[in-house]
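Workshop exercise sheet. Pairs work together: one partner reads the sequence aloud, the other fills in the structure field after running the prediction. Swap roles for the next sheet.
Pair: D.N. / O.F.
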Amino acid sequence: MAPSLTKAGWVRTVSRGLLAGLGGWTALELALSGVPEAWAIGGLSLLVVVACIEHGTRTAHAGWHRLGRVVLVIVFVSERLFLFGLDPFAMIAFVVLLIGLGVAQSLERTFAPVYAVVIDPAVLRMVDAAAVGTYARAFALLCMTFAISLLLVFLLPLAIVQSPTLFAAVGLSAALVALITFLALPPRLGRNSPARSTRRRAS
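Structure field:
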């Protein structure tokens, strides 16, 4: 029985789909800006993003993935600052999707090599269950992050104004930011998870 290369391809499709969405969003806004300099600089930067992330995918190197995401967010934030102005909803949506891209790339580096070598049907079913559960948890947390981020944008200024002391306002702000940061952390596989143990045996 051959390894499940189709499932490895589907794992990669999730991260590439998110990358295509974020890159397309950024490219569309660059095109709508009508500024030739923005087209040139932004277009070149997006090519750098694609090259970095594709190289990171081929080499399974997290550093290239991070570099691509950093360049992508710099391009998006720059066009928002200089061309369209800040929109809290759009900024939060982009950042949450960017976090999702990072999570998908992390899970891709975990599961794609496993699917490329697993041939035992029993082990493959265990890896499938681990993958489905991990992806479901990751994207549920992303939805929660987006919702709480919106609450932070709309409620935090009101809470700061109505707080009786500066200490209370700072404490509330820190608690909300800490909650968002915790939710944004990518899920980690346990030591005894099927994907991790299979990958150890394969190596």
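Discussion prompt: The mean pLDDT is 75. What would you look at next?
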